[in-house]
Amino acid sequence: MQKQEFNKQLFDFLAASPTPFHAVYEMRGRLQEAGFIELEEQNVWNVWPGGRYFIVRNESSIIAWTLASSANLANTGFRMVGAHTDSPCLKVKPNPESVSQGCLRLGVEVYGGALLNPWFDRDLSLAGRVSYVSTDGAMRSELVNFERPVAIIPSLAIHLDREVNQGRNVNPQTEMPPVMAQLQGDGKAELREILKNELLAKHIDDVAEILDYELFFYDVQKPSYIGLNNEFFASARLDNLLSCFIGMQALIDSNADQNTLLVCNDHEEVGSMSAAGAQGPMLKQLLERLLPDPESRHRMIANSMMVSVDNAHAVHPNFADKHDSNHGPRMNAGAVIKINANQRYASNSETAALFRHIAQQEDVTLQSFVVRSDMACGSTIGPITAANLGVKTVDIGVPQLAMHSIRELAGSDDPVGLAKVLSRFYCQEKV
Fold it and tell me: In degrees to the nearest 10, what's the CA dihedral of 16, 17, 22, 26?
């Protein structure tokens, strides 16, 4: 796929995926169009050589895989790619309503390590999953997305805070609740009633009572190219929906007669400790079902490799001293192999060398990232998956700026280049 078409589909995916639930919904549709069959975890499976399958857990994590037409799983293993579906954001509290000066506000928790200042003065919408009792007494869930701007977090005028540009600390409890409406007189508004009306407006007519929800605010601004020559593109949730899309597209495009697998877990930004997170058993349980015999499964894992894909820190032109001078990746110069002596990344010399060799075959350049020795290092699902499974792993990612901001920036050449390398990886006979 050419760069322009690849990026167009990427932009469409990002715009349609304001939450992990919506991202998995979009991935489910694209995989089904490519011939993948959804399996339910609670059912007995019938999987066959040459088949393409996927499972979904919690509507927010997904694993898709293909089986070679004649390969023995124990002898050949899987070529695995991993990413995560969640991004730092503002999550609505269970009882969020408060009224101040006639304005309805919704209380929020900060999900993950979000940069808070960029959330001010943005056009915000609301999306997530809603559980309700239907008119026939059954419990059901639906995804909801208001799509239009329904809230804002207004900044305090500089006239009332003259020192604001000298350094600002944001109090998430008192300063971050978005303003959603202006009430008349002693008027009241309940979020559950607002959600019910929104579902009814979307022709979901059987809603009797809203029971619960998981809702997130998001910026309605669409992805767009940036730069005189469209060198960059900006969007919300590049970390890490960019990697989810690249991994999914590489899996669909590879057409490899190999055992291939893509796992996109939720909850990475908050530690991955959940039934649907990388520290949970989802991937391990899948492999156990595909190969129940422990001896054969251990051989399969020894013949497998995981590429953990999570965006990397590009060198910032205004803050270049925040990088090691020899390890400052640039946008549009290729994906990054991430290395850390303390195993915050799972790359080692052998897995990095193999990935470099594959990239050379596609004539795609790669870069290296090592954090400054006097700074702390982030992490990914790579070390978690490597430790849980015992699978050899390399950590890579597209370099980006403004990581964990409400709007992030990446190079427009890098995604399609990484997709080519991952497609080649999926085709490897040995790893």
Answer: 60
Identify the CATH homologous superfamily for domain 89-219: Aminopeptidase i, Domain 2 (2.30.250.10)
List Cα–Cα distances, 249 to 15, 197, 245, 363, 421, in angstroms: 17, 36, 6, 19, 12
Q: Give the domain ranges of the chain.
A: 3-87+236-426, 89-219
**Cis previous bond, 240, omega within 30:** yes
Q: Give the list of residues 6+ apart from residue 229 with CB closer than 8 angstroms, or none.
A: none
Q: Does domain 3-87+236-426 fall into CATH 3.40.630.10?
A: yes
In 266-337, where does DSSP find H-type helix? Answer: 282-290, 294-302
- Structural contact between residues 73 and 300, judged by C-beta atoms closer than 8 angstroms: yes
Are 28 and 62 in contact by the 8 Å Cβ rule? The answer is: yes
Q: Are 315 and 339 in contact (CB under 8 A)?
A: no
Residue 71 pLDDT exceeds 70: no
The dihedral sign for the CA sequence 397, 403, 406, 410: negative
d(CA 220, CA 82): 27
Nearest-10 crossing angle of helices 238-254, 3-15: 130
24, 62, 263 from 29: Cα distances, Å: 9, 12, 16
Instruction: Say if CB 119 and CB 144 are below 8 A apart.
Output: no
Produce one character per residue of 117-149: b if its CB has 16 or more CB atoms within 10 Å, e if not.
eebbebebbbbbbbebeeeeeeeeeebbbbeee
**Percentage helix, strand, coil, to 5, in the chain?**
30, 30, 45
Q: What is the pLDDT of residue 66?
A: 96
> Which pLDDT does position 152 carry in this prediction?
98
Give residues with Cβ within 8 angstroms of 356, minimum separation 6: 337, 366
Q: In what order do the strands lie in the sheet with 408-411?
A: 224-226, 232-235, 408-411, 399-401, 312-313
pLDDT in tens, 320-341: 999 999 999 999 999 999 999 9
Neighbouring C-beta atoms of residue 319, cutoff 10 Å: 9
Angle of CA points 134, 138, 140, to nearest 5°? 70
Q: pLDDT tens across 178-230, in order?
A: 999 999 877 778 999 999 999 988 888 899 999 999 999 999 999 999 999 99
